Amino acid sequence: MRDHSEQLEFMEIDISEDIEPASVRIPDRSSLANHSREAYIQTGAVLSSEKRFVEEARRLAEVIGEETLSVPFMSYWPTYGVMNDAQLRWYWYWRTEVRQGNYLDVDLSYLFVHIYELINGIGWLYPEQGYEQLKQLWIQYRERLPQLNTYMQEWIVDFVLVHELQPRLQEVMLLAGGYLPAPLLDKELQRIMEGNASDFTLEMLQRYYDYDISLNTFYRDGGKAVMERYIPQVMVVAHTYMKRTQPHGLLPEISLGAERTMERTLFRKAVYDESIYGRSVSFTYFPLGEQTDFVQRLTRIYRCTENKLRELLGFRGRLRGKTLEPDLARVIERYIEKAYALEQTETAPAPVIQIDTAKLASLQEDSEYVRKALTIEETEHSGFDSASEAAAESETIEPDQDKMPAAPRFTEQQEDPSREQANLAATTSIEAEEMNELLEAKSSVESEVQFLREDAASAKIELQWDESVSASLQQEWHDFAGRLETRHVKAVQVLLGDHVDAELMRLANETGTMPALLLDEINDIAMETIGDLLIDGDRIAPEYMDVFEHVKRC
Fold first, then answer.
1. d(C-alpha 493, C-alpha 345), whole Å
2. Distance (Å, rounded) from C-alpha 503 to C-alpha 554?
């Protein structure tokens, strides 16, 4: 038996087999940890238990365990030193299985030991690997061991900050159900609004509304899923639209000296050696959640979005309160109308195809009749050729009229059966040839249409303005023009013409699409560049017609 006396820090608890570990609650270990630190400070051995754990963990990092029986283990401060031999054997086997992606059931104390290894830099070569292992432990055991969430949502944030994996905060927040410490949430929202605005989520934005959105009836009665889909899209639209008049869009202006610096203690309540990454990590952030105007605007955007969706979904009642600026509200409502209509089109059930079995059987009979007729035609042609040869030979021989049998005669009412079959075969052959010619002509036309479409697509056409106004246009319009495909440019030209409906339909047929989809594509590009819908209904919006008066015609 190995001697554990040197490593026994606090207490060792032996749990008999008749006690179920799940029924024993693990107390908050912070008070015990503080007591331990004080005791070691008095003896001059500050944090020696953490250092000793890390040294032993490095030595045992590559141990591979063989299959063994599960042994209960529960400790207020779990380390290798408080495990007995059976518990250690189970731990090595469980850790080996976990590293291979097999997440066996395990007590929380075993799980903590492996987490301590990872946060102290043991068991991985690159920080991304360590992050992925921590994330998978959290995902795999969060339902089986709910107590894990409280610790992991803090420790994995510390890991991200220490190793400068800030883009992972978005994923951590989703795993934590929208939770991030307030300063980090401010910092993450600022990063998104300054970069990729498409990363907005409803969970992230909930903190910035001035009331609890989960209490209203629409949210509770099925609206949550709808808002989760639409709020991120609407935020991108509003943010892009606001950039037309404000450089930072919805983000408030951040003046010099307005940012704050926060010192965050690392891996609290964990067995962590502070000499590895330090006792704390610092970062700067701008307190967005404390900006009243910012919070009110985001709340009004939410209210505007919910009211429009209530209208479209036929939900009674509207949210009251201060409303958005009319221009921004109009942009949001028009976008939701278009997006909702497109969504309804995409989710509409496909038409049900029913086969008329009687007609199918009739067609099969006709097909079999034609096949037999073609077979008869081939046979009759062969017999006719033989008869012709025989007739040609008979012309050179003088027949003996007395010995020749009389040839059968047929009246108009009684036609020769062989001639009838030959006529039928000849008619069927002509019909087959005509059908082949029609198929060949159709194939030729389709090939020509496809060629014309490919030829038209290969000829790139760009939207251009007259030189007199091109230089004075805002950059967003040049960005818009640069994103347009040839079909979009042609559609804009059609919208500026006299016969819009007919020409738009013709263009849609040429490019293999529909007019509505073509215009929606242009509006999508407009939302991403100029921040507004360019086309209202099936015409260019009146407020933008002055921009297109000087567009060069093709």
1. 27
2. 14
Alpha-carbon distance of 219 to 516, in angstroms, equals 32
Task: Give me the chain's average pLDDT, please.
Answer: 77
Is 135:106 a contact under the CB 8 Å cutoff?
Answer: no
**Global pTM?**
0.56
Helices (H) and strands (E) in the chain, counts: 22, 4
Could you give the CA distance from residue 209 to residue 300 in angstroms, rounded to a whole number? Answer: 9
Separation CA 36–CA 75 (nearest Å): 14
Cβ atoms of 533 and 335 closer than 8 Å: yes
CA distance 192 to 186: 10
Closest CA to 109 of 90, 124, 96: 90
Provide the 3-class DSSP secondary structure of residue 247.
coil
pLDDT digits (tens, 9 = 90+) for 213-254: 888 888 888 888 999 999 999 998 999 888 888 888 899 888
Virtual CA dihedral for 324, 326, 332, 334, nearest 10 degrees? Answer: 150
- Please give the Cα distance from 310 to 308 (Å, whole number): 5
- Say if CB 463 and CB 482 are below 8 A apart: no
114, 95 Cβ separation under 8 angstroms:
yes
Provide φ and ψ at 498, rounded to 5°: -100, -30
State pLDDT tens for residues 186-204. 998 998 888 877 788 888 8
Whose CA is closest to 480, among 551, 538, 543? Answer: 551
CB-based burial of residue 40 (10 Å sphere; 0-12 exposed, 13-18 middle, 19+ buried)? middle
Q: Which residue has the tokens 């939900």?
A: 315
Cα–Cα distance between 511 and 437 in angstroms, integer?
A: 28
